[in-house]
């Protein structure tokens, strides 16, 4: 882990990815008030375009010295330019059908992802949506 710090909006973590051919680091933000984990990859070359960002529904528990997340499987992939799509729907459906995810967790994930999809689509850009939510940082 190269960077780990608490922000007003959540937790920012950056980890190098030395074995990944296209990106140098994985950047993860835990956004507890939104019930989301945001993941981006820093390209190896500054001339490369960044890949899509991923927003995943999660339960986040904060303790004084630790953070714990529970992945709720359903998420969004946000391309540069704002095109957004729901991801991992099949895995989510299987987890719900087999009881891996409880009904309350599934409802929470669905509400979180659909609210976020609506908001990101309205703002047409992930960074503008983050700013609307009061989350500012330099990528």
Automatic annotation (TrEMBL):
It comes from the Bacteria. Residues 62-124 form the DUF402 domain. InterPro entries: DUF402 (IPR007295), FomD-like_sf (IPR035930). Pfam families: DUF402. This is DUF402 domain-containing protein. It comes from Saccharopolyspora hordei. The lineage of its organism: Bacteria, Bacillati, Actinomycetota, Actinomycetes, Pseudonocardiales.
